[in-house]
User: What shape does this take?
Amino acid sequence: MTPSERRSVLDQLAASEARLLELTAGLSPEQWNFRESPERWSVADNIEHVTALEGFILAAIFKTLQAAPEPEKQAKAIEKESLVLNLAGTRDKKLRAREAVLPTGKWQNPAELIQDFRNARAHTSAFAAETDADLRSHFFAHIAFGDIDCYQWLIVLAQHSFRHALQIEETLSRARIC
Assistant: This one.
């Protein structure tokens, strides 16, 4: 990862974390758990999902980096860079979450969930700040985009958080009018 790529991913990780923390600060239990309908996620569900995905993806990155590099995939992955960078701006197209990262109500205490999110993000950010791995030559499949490289996966984590921040904003605006 180049120095500018490292700075970009760290900035996006920090900004998306700050946005989620800002949106969840001081919520009442009613706001935290509000669902517009049974199939819609609450704020708690969104934060649980973001937290679960953070750990899932970072573990997948670590596992992927143990395999041999696949530089022949770089050209195709670079073509997907704009999709990755604009993941948050594509809320008109629903993406289906992997079963392993669907919210389950594991955390009953909002403060504990927020702390676990912060811990997961700190772990991701520390990895992004310190790694010397060739992230651009290691790949695994995104549910919608296909193979993307491990650097792009770090960007996905930040963009994913921004995407869920938008979903939380929608949920909170509906919670106020219901």
Residues 3-177 form a domain with the Four Helix Bundle (Hemerythrin (Met), subunit A) fold (CATH 1.20.120.450). The chain has one domain: 3-177. The beta strands are 139-142, 146-149.
